[in-house]
Specification:
alpha+beta; SH3 type barrels; 9 strands; 230 residues; 2 domains
Length: 230
């Protein structure tokens, strides 16, 4: 059998691990990886997937390696179609569990055991936004020029290097404390906005994100509504 065909068969054996790694990459926020790191991770997923498959099938693999029948031929791999369905299910389950482990910081178990001090997420940016910030979190973003933006956090960038946020129900807070209501859906703050700090605020007692008095003719209001926050 040509070497290229043998390599293709080996690739098919490792395919569940590559599929699991791809699913995890789509669902979880991972740190930067080299191509070598991705290959090693995929191989580890393959070992785990086949170990689970062998455990549930009591020692059987989803394929058989047929020995060469003549000196001129090579060994070949015979796949079992029914077993491939079970292998695919295990692949998806392993990938989902790995994504949950990363997104919900499975390392907290090992931190309690004093094994490590690291989290499973890629940076403190993700630790705060994924772990600490609640749904519809009220934030105040401080920008350069003594300006701030207050509103409800809806989206944030995957990486701290991008440092982008989308805030709904937005209000600009000027240096003198006046508040300007932003009409429309919200404000997208990109990396070029030069974010200096982000304050995660408590919700007002009545459960609404921000209460703003009627605006003046110039579209601004006094900063008194900030005092209604806890």
């Amino acid at each position: 059998m040509p070497t290229s065909v043998i390599a293709l068969q080996i690739l098919l054996i490792l395919l569940p691990g590559f599929a699991a790694a791809y699913i995890v990459q789509m669902l979880a926020l991972r740190g930067p990886q080299t191509d070598f790191d991705k290959v090693i991770e995929s191989c580890l997923y393959s070992v785990l997937i086949y170990a689970c498959f062998v455990f549930f099938t009591h020692g059987f693999l989803p394929f058989d390696i047929l020995a060469a029948k003549a000196p001129a031929t090579e060994a070949t791999i015979l796949w079992h179609r029914k077993a491939l369905l079970g292998l695919g299910c295990i692949t998806v389950i392993v990938a989902l569990l790995a994504a949950v482990y990363v997104n919900y910081d499975g390392n907290r178990i090992f931190r309690r055991l004093k094994v490590t001090e690291r989290t499973a997420r890629r940076s403190i940016w993700n630790d705060i936004f994924q772990g600490e910030a609640s749904n519809n979190q009220l934030v105040q973003v401080e920008l350069e020029g003594n300006r701030s933006l207050m509103g409800v956090l809806t989206y944030y960038s995957d990486a701290a290097e991008d440092c982008s946020l989308f805030v709904e129900q937005a209000r600009w807070i000027a240096a003198d404390g006046t508040i300007e209501v932003v009409p429309g859906l919200g404000v997208l703050l990109t990396k070029s906005s030069n974010i200096k700090s982000i304050s995660f605020l408590d919700e007002p007692p009545d459960g609404t994100a921000v209460e703003v008095e009627d605006a003046d003719d110039d579209g601004s209001t006094p900063a008194a509504p900030i005092a209604t926050l806890d």
